[in-house]
Amino acid sequence: MVPYGASGPTGDPEVQKNAFFAKCPQAKDKRYLLFLGRIHRKKGCDLLIDAFAKVAASDPDLYLVMAGPDQQLWSAKLKATAASAGVADRIFWPGLITGDAKWGAFFGSEAFVLPSHQENFGIAVAEALACGKPVLLADKVNIAEDIAADGAGLMELDTAEGTLRLLRRWIGMTPQEKRHMAELAHRCFHSRYDMRENAKAIIRLFGTATVLTPTEVGTEVST
User: Fold this and answer.
1) Residue 95: what are its φ and ψ, rounded to 5°?
2) 135: which of 7, 48, 106, 153 fits an S-S bond (Cβ 3.0–4.6 Å)?
3) Mind giving me the DSSP string for the chain?
4) Residue 78: which domain range?
């Protein structure tokens, strides 16, 4: 079995961070958690806004970036929820970001968070790991269990309570624990999800595969 993978960043992280801050100037010089994906009900965005509102007072210097396209036109309701909870000024909505700005958003963040109700893989999760960022995931992200086992992130249920636990666990970690998890995140990407390494593994598999002759193929079919 060869896992699916993703490509890591290329270029200068400082240039990329500046590209992101040009799109989202409010986030500059801020500590923030990053959600990057569709603003979609499947992604658990409402759970994340509610959970952040509940932990915001316990870490007043922490912000949340909600980056991604809003095809369902749901963000207006989510922003209203944030405003009612008194955290509208702590959540930034830069919309769709790509290229250097996308990588800069990862590099500038403390951690990536995805409380999704269903993810077959999660390219953005692997990309966050490639940038050395811990990932805070719902258990419905299919690779969450492996990442948690590697110590590269945290995993909880895809519920309101589970998402709240994710944020509380992250806030409760010491700076040293967060740095260590970041190191493990980078290691996890290269050992599991680096597309270049996975391509090499696929080539090795083809190199060791048994090649059947036409006669053998006919025998295999008939049996």
Assistant:
1) 75, -160
2) 153
3) -----B----S-HHHHHHHHHHH-GGGTT-EEEEEES---GGGTHHHHHHHHHHHGGGSTTEEEEEES--TT--HHHHHHHHHHTT-GGGEEEEE---HHHHHHHHHH-SEEEE--S-BSS-HHHHHHHHTT--EEEETTBTTHHHHHHTTSEEEE-SSHHHHHHHHHHHHHS-HHHHHHHHHHHHHHIIIIIBHHHHHHHHHHHHHHPPPPPHHHHHHHHH-
4) 13-222
Residue 188 forms part of a structural domain: yes
Q: Rounded to 5 degrees, what angle do the CA atoms 85, 88, 90 make?
A: 110
Other beta carbons within 10 Å of 58: 11
Q: Kindly tell me the burial class for residue 9, based on how many C-beta atoms sit within 10 Å of its own C-beta (0-12, 13-18, 19 or more).
A: middle
pLDDT(194) > 70: yes
Q: What is the pLDDT of residue 155?
A: 98
Report the range of poorest mean pLDDT among 6-20, 58-72, 172-186.
6-20
pTM, full prediction:
0.85
Whether residue 40 lies inside any domain: the answer is yes
Per residue in 163-185, pLDDT tens? 999 999 999 999 999 999 999 99
Residue 207 forms part of a structural domain = yes
Q: At residue 36, does pLDDT exceed 70?
A: yes
Beta strand 62-67 with 91-95 is: parallel
Q: Is residue 19 part of a domain?
A: yes
